[in-house]
């Protein structure tokens, strides 16, 4: 996979074997390009280009942008719909249990309607999808530490949404080098496609085997 920005000579090769990190030293340029990327993911036109096997990715469908690690929870509508579909497929295999549940519900509904002051109708049977929807399933985070929260979120996005790229912004500002190594190792091991963008002056790689660093300096020159 490659990452390009059409208004510069930036071209970054992404790999399953390491994490690519781009430092943007010019803060105005950082803000402008990140705003543009956010708009592209929302469906607007822009100059960020992501390609895989020489095919351009659809930013809105294929790319996830994470800018605030304190507010990731995996409970956005698109993720929950995938979770519910997955749980429904499991519930559909429990045919005997579904029959028992519907049998008991029919008895309950019959008793309720007999006591109603007017004639009322009801749904004769609930599907596995109906029952999962009624369960209001969602991810519970509690007091999860930031490192565990991020790793779990990356797993959720990769496994359920099947996103082709997750862009993490300023993750280094929140984590120690040891924590970053754990995140990178996890992503490489599970083949979770991430690309990191950092603001400010370039730092050394946390581990040259895990991370490859690129820079757009304050004069907007691309350094690799």
From TrEMBL:
Entry-linked InterPro entries: CRISPR-assoc_prot_Csn2-typ, Csn2_sf
Database matches in Pfam families: Cas_Csn2
Source taxon at top rank: Bacteria
UniProt cross-references to Gene3D superfamilies, sorted A to Z: 3.40.50.11940
Signal peptide: none
Record NCBIfam families: cas_Csn2
Protein name as annotated: CRISPR-associated protein, Csn2 family
């Amino acid at each position: 996979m490659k990452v390009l920005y059409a208004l510069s000579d930036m071209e970054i090769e992404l790999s399953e074997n390491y994490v690519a990190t781009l430092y943007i030293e010019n803060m105005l340029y950082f803000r402008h390009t990140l705003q543009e990327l956010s708009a592209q993911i929302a469906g607007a036109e822009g100059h960020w280009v992501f390609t895989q096997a020489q095919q351009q990715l659809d930013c809105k469908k294929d790319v996830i942008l994470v800018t605030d690690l304190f507010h990731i929870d995996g409970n956005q509508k698109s993720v929950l719909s995938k979770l519910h579909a997955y749980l429904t497929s499991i519930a559909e295999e429990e045919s005997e249990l579904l029959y028992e549940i519907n049998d008991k519900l029919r008895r309950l509904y019959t008793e309720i309607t007999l006591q109603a002051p007017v004639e009322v109708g009801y749904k004769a049977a609930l599907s596995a999808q109906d029952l999962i929807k009624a369960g209001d399933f969602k991810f519970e985070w509690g007091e999860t530490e930031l490192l565990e929260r991020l790793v779990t979120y990356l797993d959720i996005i990769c496994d359920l949404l099947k996103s082709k790229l997750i862009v993490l912004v300023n993750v280094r500002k929140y984590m120690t080098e040891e924590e970053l190594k754990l995140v990178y190792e996890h992503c490489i091991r599970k083949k979770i496609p991430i690309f990191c963008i950092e603001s400010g002056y370039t730092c050394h790689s946390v581990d040259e085997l895990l991370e490859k660093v690129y820079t757009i300096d304050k004069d907007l020159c691309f350094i690799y």
